[in-house]
# Entry
Amino acid sequence: MKLDRITSNPNRLNGQPCIRNFRLTVRRVIELLATYPNREELRQEFPELEDEDIRQALIFAASYLDDRIIELPDCYETVA
# Structure
């Protein structure tokens, strides 16, 4: 899959992956999705952010978790 909206420039934000060369990192987009469960609010605060930007940020982040086992502290329990 081509992630053409994810950019990385070593001279900008220490080379962190960003959305379309904006100063908006993939990590920040993921944080914003958690902070703004209502997409309309998110769009009001960040009108430059498009649905395709969000989709590609999620795909990019998910690719880093692929086939990795992440140990969680015992204090995190699964709630059924």
Q: What stands out?
A: The beta strands are 6-7, 18-19. The chain is about 40% helix and 5% strand.
